[in-house]
């Protein structure tokens, strides 16, 4: 059986992609597994789901993590 010799070369990571991968202070992440639940924008929480469903909700926001099932709550950012 032949051994595959092809491989993927290392990818250059752009600054924008590196920021998304590392996260920002505006990210709302699951307390248990760290999965991204939403992003704080202009005093609202931006939620994005599969098949293009997107919502802007007020605070406090409550969500169950789709990854681990933990209940999470986000409060309004301090001013």
Question: Would you kindly provide a written description of the structure presented here, covering whatever features stand out?
Answer:
The protein is mostly beta strands and 79 residues long. It has a domain at 27-74. It is built from one helix and six strands; from the N terminus they run H-E-E-E-E-E-E. The chain has one helix at 15-22, and strands spanning 27-29, 36-41, 44-48, 54-57, 61-64, 71-74. The model has no long low-confidence stretch (mean pLDDT 81).
List keywords for this structure.
two-stranded antiparallel sheet, four-stranded antiparallel beta sheet, 6 strands, mainly beta, 79 residues, 1 helix
Pattern of helices and strands: HEEEEEE
> Given the structure, what is the number of helices?
1
Shape: globular
Structural class from helices and strands? mainly beta
Radius of gyration: 17 Å
Query: Which sequence of strands runs across the widest sheet?
Result: 1-2-3-4
| Average pLDDT reading | 81
SSE arrangement:
Blueprint: H1 15-22, E1 27-29, E2 36-41, E3 44-48, E4 54-57, E5 61-64, E6 71-74
Antiparallel strand pairs: 1-2, 2-3, 3-4, 5-6
Characterize this entry briefly.
This protein is mainly beta and 79 residues long. The protein has one helix and six strands; from the N terminus they run H-E-E-E-E-E-E. The mean pLDDT is 81.
């Amino acid at each position: 059986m032949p051994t595959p010799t092809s491989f993927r070369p290392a990818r250059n990571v752009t600054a924008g992609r590196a920021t998304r991968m590392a996260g920002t202070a505006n990210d709302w992440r699951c307390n248990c597994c760290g999965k991204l639940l939403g992003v704080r924008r202009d005093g609202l929480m931006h939620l994005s789901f599969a098949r293009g469903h997107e919502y802007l909700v007020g605070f406090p926001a409550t969500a169950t993590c789709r990854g681990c099932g933990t209940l999470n709550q986000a409060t309004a950012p301090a001013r």
